[in-house]
Design a protein that fits this description.
Layout lengths: L4 E2 L3 H8 L11 E4 L19 E7 L12 E6 L7 E2 L12 E6 L5 E9 L4 H5 L3
Antiparallel strand pairs: 1-5, 2-3, 3-4, 6-7
Bound molecules: zinc ion.
Zinc ion (ZN) binds next to loops.
C-alpha cells in the first residue's frame, strides 16, 4: 500500500491564522514555543523555541460521529509550507514509542490497526494495512 503523509489543509490553517474559529469555536491561542516538542501540524516541522505558535482544538473529521475526536494541536504562527511526502519527517524517529491508529473510509477507528511501534517504523507498519 502506498503511504502519503500530509499536513493539515492549507486553506484551514490560513483561516485559523486569520482569526478563524477552531473545533471548539474559539480563536487560537498565540504563545511562544517553549522546549523542543512543538510540532506544527501543517509543515510537520518542529516550531523552534522562542517562535510564535498557535494552540487550538482540532478535529480532523468533516462530520460529527462517535469517533470524531477533538484534540489540541500546534501550528506555526508564521506561514509555512504544507508537508506532503511518502516519507516521515526525520524527527518522527525520536518517538519512542509511537502510537499508531487507523481509521476506515467511514472515519471510524479500526482497532485492528492499533500498534505501538518505534517512530522510525511507522511507515513500514502502516503500509501493512
Ligand atoms: Zn509549520
Amino acid at each position: 500500500m502506498e503511504i502519503i503523509l500530509r499536513g493539515i489543509d492549507t486553506e484551514y490553517v490560513e483561516a485559523i491564522r486569520d482569526g478563524g474559529l477552531d473545533a471548539n469555536g474559539q480563536v487560537a491561542v498565540r504563545q511562544l514555543a517553549v522546549g523542543t516538542a512543538n510540532p506544527c501540524r501543517h509543515c510537520l516541522d518542529l516550531i523552534a523555541e522562542g517562535e510564535q505558535k498557535l494552540v487550538l482544538a482540532y478535529c480532523p473529521f468533516t462530520r460529527i460521529h462517535p469517533y470524531a475526536e477533538v484534540g489540541p494541536i500546534f501550528l506555526h504562527a508564521k506561514n509555512c509550507e504544507r508537508y506532503e511526502s511518502d516519507k516521515l519527517p526525520g524527527w518522527f524517529a525520536f518517538f519512542q514509542p509511537a502510537l499508531m491508529r487507523g481509521y476506515g473510509l467511514d472515519d471510524w477507528i479500526r482497532y485492528e490497526t492499533g500498534s505501538v511501534v518505534p517512530g522510525d517504523e511507522l511507515t513500514v507498519v502502516a503500509s501493512k494495512f
